[in-house]
Design goal:
Shape: globular
Low-confidence stretches: 1-28
Mean pLDDT: 91
Strand content: over 45%
Length: 434
């Protein structure tokens, strides 16, 4: 079971009430059932991955232009995540430290250690909480995407449940409960600084930004109204909702309006220019659990600021031309331009406009204990390319997860997934919680 986030260990004692033993006297120490003020836990993961490479794909040529002929790439990944907390009176300190390790025989080794979260909380009243430090807000109701998560890093749609690195901020929560159709209201103001060594990768430096969320629980529907404004990034506004239509059937959605977004657009002649426009991003989805424990998640995501088919084709064509020039003359100019465009947005996950996400997960089929197979499909509905990911999860050993997953790429040339660097990938993930 995933246990990212705060984990409290509660020890529950059972009082023996058997009539045959009623006359015996029992004593126990109340301190043994009190919640401890501190917590420490963690997660260790090993994840080898085998990539079957597509030598005809544009992104293969961009990455392996100096290693042509490579058919496979074996990559070793590791992760160590440690977290701890301490509470005293109205104060709480929480920290989560993450170390990622990666090695392959093309780029060699990489190690990155950083605090994913490290903040101090104060709760002067039951309805008021103040947080200062590095944290994730986790705004939004979507599973694979969160268009309204303005102050968080974007999820990896291929692995949306992974813990993410937060940002440094100051936030507060003010909560009120009521009787009637409107059951709960909460207000969350956020101050978001961006300076040389504080959130410097977020946007324009030496600026202070503000964000906020207004939450309602109205007629059993969760509703958020969210905004973020400031000099570091264009202003953005949005809302989300989630509602259980039945016990096992939930629907959710998000909408975000982002003003004055900028993207670099490449035309068919190889020239590019900066386009500024308002962006509209929305998501609509559902989650359904059957009586036989089949969980279905379906989401559709639209981003009006994504690239269209012609813009992506022009990018792939630039890579091919640059690759040919390098092969014939050793000239890297075209490839360097393509790399710059890739970093500007063309190579980011889900860089185009319309996507469909479908995930089916069956718990313990045929009464096979601790065994959960699943199938995930990420489909680009603009060019009908897709990434299909079958997966097997085994949890029969205490605190240990074994996950075998494959990724199979389908799609014609000049399509987003069809031009990925690999045809398939196979990964084994062994994770231990403590």
């Amino acid at each position: 079971m995933k246990r990212f986030g705060l984990i409290f260990l509660v020890i529950v004692f059972s009082a023996i009430s058997s009539a045959t033993m009623a006359e015996e006297n029992y004593t126990f120490d109340l301190s043994e059932i009190e919640k401890k003020p501190y917590h420490f836990g963690g997660y260790i993961e090993a994840r080898p991955v085998l990539y079957g490479l597509d030598t005809d794909a544009a992104l293969y040529k961009l990455r392996f232009f100096d290693d042509v002929g490579r058919r496979a790439l074996l990559e070793a990944n590791g992760r160590v995540l440690l977290e701890g907390s301490y509470e005293k009176n109205i104060f709480r300190v929480f920290a989560r430290l993450n170390t990622d390790l990666q090695y392959n025989d093309h780029t060699h080794g990489m190690e990155r250690t950083t605090f994913y979260e490290a903040y101090v909380s104060a709760k002067p009243l039951t309805s008021v909480k103040i947080d200062v430090g590095k944290k994730t807000l986790k705004w939004g109701k979507g599973y694979a995407w969160n268009p309204v998560a303005f102050a968080d890093r974007p999820k990896d749609p291929d692995d949306p449940e992974q813990a993410m690195e937060g940002y440094i901020m100051a936030s507060a929560d003010f909560i009120r409960s009521f009787e009637g159709p409107l059951k709960t209201v909460s207000i969350t103001p956020v101050l978001f600084p961006v300076y040389d060594h504080i959130n410097s990768d977020f946007g324009q430096n030496n600026k202070l930004n503000a964000a906020g969320r207004l939450y309602f629980l109205f007629y059993d529907t969760d509703i958020d109204i969210i905004f973020m404004t400031g000099p570091s990034r264009p202003d953005r506004y949005g809302f989300d909702f989630s509602r259980n239509l039945t016990t096992n059937f939930e629907i959710h959605g998000e909408y975000a309006w982002v003003t004055n977004t900028r993207k670099t657009v490449l035309d068919s002649t190889g020239m590019y220019n900066l386009v500024e426009q308002d962006a509209h991003r929305f998501l609509i989805g559902l989650r359904y659990l059957t009586s036989f424990d089949l969980t279905t998640i379906i989401e559709f995501y639209h981003n009006s600021a994504g690239f269209n088919r012609d813009e992506m084709k022009n990018f792939f064509s630039l890579i091919s031309q640059g690759f040919d020039a390098y092969q014939i003359k050793g000239n890297r100019t075209g490839l360097a331009r393509a790399m710059n465009l890739a970093e500007s947005g063309y190579a980011r996950p889900n860089a185009m406009r319309n996507y469909l996400y479908v995930r089916l997960s069956q718990k313990e089929p045929f009464d096979i204990l601790y065994f959960t197979p699943s199938l995930t499909c990420m489909i680009n509905t603009d060019d009908l390319s897709a990434n299909i990911m079958p997966e097997i999860l085994y949890t029969g050993i205490t605190n240990l997860e074994l996950r075998l997953r494959a990724g199979i790429i389908t799609g014609p040339g000049d399509s987003e997934f069809g031009e990925k660097q690999n045809d398939y990938r196979i990964e084994l993930r062994a994770g231990y919680y403590f």
